[in-house]
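Work Package 4 report. The design task specified in the project plan requires that, given a folded chain encoded as structure tokens, an amino acid be chosen for each position. We show below one input record used in the internal validation round.
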């Protein structure tokens, strides 16, 4: 779908009057549309025009205004100044006042921390397990000290066939493109579980205990995904079931930007190579195509949690 709507924005740019410059303002981190941004046009350091960015369409600067530079300002963003020749159709502003996300949420238990989100499940937004990496989460240790991981929890729809799987934890790099998209590149393997099993009629919360020497360094990130190994029928024979009998991970509403997945190409019937930050991509596309933000129900993530406690042990190289 995204490949089909992408050219629409380009068409709008081409079909717009050639005598005007148009642009939208976007948050450099979340890729969300920023509304009510004040801008001033300058000529020889003198203000010649002032305005505010539009909400439902790109802002247009008429050819009749003679200017050589522009500045953008909003109280919670850093002021951005550009020469006329550097004005692009998409302009990125960076937060000036940073509102820190809760990347580590305390629980009732002493010294326990939980990484991940606990929001409402989204009906009909579950996703099947895959043998190849299709989707996963980037977790961040936002605490000033290393964490010792204790267990992982995830949620599944009712299981119909015995399912063999493993959980893979790896180092990760996040790559940002000029187009505003963020890609995850899993790196060194940090840990993978033994072969685990889900039984028919299992549903809801699944907990997996992690080894007691599994540490998550401070200020580091980790990529986590669940790998399908095999399905088995009642006789214990490996089978390839229809999609309605495959095991599915539940998805929930998301307030963060940690979910990465490959896109499915309808023409080739294959997944793309890049693992893109899906929610950032949605924010970007809605901002540049529709000059709006996605519906809350469009921003989702797999319901996966990591449980840990603050560790006083020192990591050994």
């Amino acid at each position: 779908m995204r490949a089909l709507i992408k050219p629409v924005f380009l068409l709008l740019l081409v079909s717009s009057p050639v005598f005007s410059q148009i642009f939208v303002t976007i948050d450099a981190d979340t890729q969300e549309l920023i509304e009510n941004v004040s801008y001033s046009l300058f000529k020889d350091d003198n203000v010649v025009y002032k305005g505010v960015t539009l909400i439902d369409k790109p802002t247009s600067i008429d050819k009749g205004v003679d200017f050589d530079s522009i500045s953008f300002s909003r109280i919670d963003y850093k002021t951005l100044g550009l020469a006329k020749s550097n004005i692009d159709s998409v302009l990125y502003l960076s937060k000036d006042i940073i509102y820190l996300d809760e990347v580590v949420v305390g629980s009732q238990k002493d010294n326990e921390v939980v990484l991940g989100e606990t929001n409402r499940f989204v009906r009909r937004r579950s996703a099947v397990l895959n043998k190849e990496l299709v989707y996963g989460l980037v977790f961040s240790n936002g605490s000033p000290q290393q964490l010792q991981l204790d267990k992982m929890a995830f949620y599944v729809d009712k299981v119909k066939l015995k399912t063999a799987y493993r959980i893979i934890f790896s180092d990760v790099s996040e790559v940002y493109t000029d187009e505003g998209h963020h890609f995850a590149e899993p790196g060194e393997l940090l840990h993978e579980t033994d072969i685990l099993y889900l039984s028919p009629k299992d549903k809801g919360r699944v907990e997996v205990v992690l080894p007691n020497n599994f540490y998550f360094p401070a200020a580091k990130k980790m990529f986590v995904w669940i790998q399908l190994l095999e399905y088995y029928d009642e006789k214990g024979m490996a089978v390839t079931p229809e999609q309605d009998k495959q095991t599915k991970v539940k998805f929930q509403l998301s307030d963060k930007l940690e979910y990465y997945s490959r896109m499915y190409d309808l023409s080739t019937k294959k997944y793309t190579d890049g693992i893109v930050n899906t929610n950032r991509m949605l924010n970007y596309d809605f901002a540049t195509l529709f000059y709006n933000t996605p519906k809350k129900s469009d921003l989702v993530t797999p319901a996966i949690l990591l449980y840990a406690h603050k560790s006083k042990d020192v990591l050994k190289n």
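Residues 10 and 270 are 26 Å apart (CA to CA). Validation will be extended to a larger panel in the next phase.
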